[in-house]
Design brief:
alpha/beta, 9 strands, 34% helix, Rossmann fold, 9 helices
């Protein structure tokens, strides 16, 4: 092994010993069969989030001209995976972080869907006006602030805090999405949103039966309540 390679591997070992995520060291993470660029500006895609993609594909494939919105785009793994599998779909991706949207943009170009996704800096729905969608998807910051200290070092110290928590009980942005989604959904439109393992019933109660036709709580592969699937009347 030459000196350059030896130094390279020593640096990797040192970074990992410092609990830096392996995905940050390699600069990528696989999600729904695709490789995504990641760094400390975005959440590392997790397998449980693929549940959103699976359900979104099923919904959008039945629509003639599907258009959807993602709140909190991050790396773009959700939107890009959906667009990759539903060729007739278009999307708007919203994120409060300009740095995160730069990663989204590069991932969209890599997977050749950049012409079908419009990226906007926005605090939740702030930049939207009269636009309507068949579907809204989101993996919002739902971790209660009091739980942050108990997270793995790899998560707590290396992933963006604004993508993990709202700085409160973990439900303020979730509630904002639930309350405002109807303004931007067509009749019979859907909301797919990831939630924390203990939040299912609290989130279910946010949905008014006068506005929403159905509200389902779907489990991930470990049987943990992981996603809200709600359909507008």
């Amino acid at each position: 092994m030459n000196r350059f390679r030896k130094n390279y591997f020593q640096q990797i070992i040192a970074r990992r010993a410092n609990r830096e995520p392996f995905q940050h060291i390699t600069g990528k993470q696989e999600f729904y069969g695709l490789d995504f660029e990641v760094n400390s500006d975005v959440l590392i895609p997790r397998p449980e989030t693929e549940l959103i993609v699976e359900n979104a594909i099923e919904i959008l494939q039945k629509i003639e001209k599907p258009r959807f919105c993602e709140v909190g785009t991050g790396s773009g793994c959700i939107s890009i995976s959906i667009l990759h599998n539903v060729s007739k779909a278009t999307a708007i991706g919203l994120d409060v972080s300009e740095k995160a949207l730069k990663i989204t943009r590069r991932n969209a170009e890599k997977h050749e869907v950049s012409d079908r996704v419009e990226l906007k800096i926005s605090d939740v729905f702030a930049v939207l006006t009269e636009e309507k969608f068949s579907l809204i998807v989101s993996n919002p910051p739902y971790v209660p602030s009091e739980d942050i200290s108990g997270l793995q070092t790899e998560v707590r110290d290396f992933e963006p805090i604004i993508a993990l928590t709202d700085g409160k009980d973990g439900l303020s942005i979730v509630e904002h999405i639930v309350e405002n989604s109807p303004k931007f959904l067509y009749s019979k439109g859907f909301l797919l949103m990831e939630i924390g393992f203990s939040q299912a019933e609290k989130v279910r109660q946010m949905f008014s039966p006068e506005i929403w036709q159905t509200v389902e709580i779907l489990p991930d592969l470990q049987g943990i309540p992981r996603m809200i699937k709600a359909q507008l009347k």
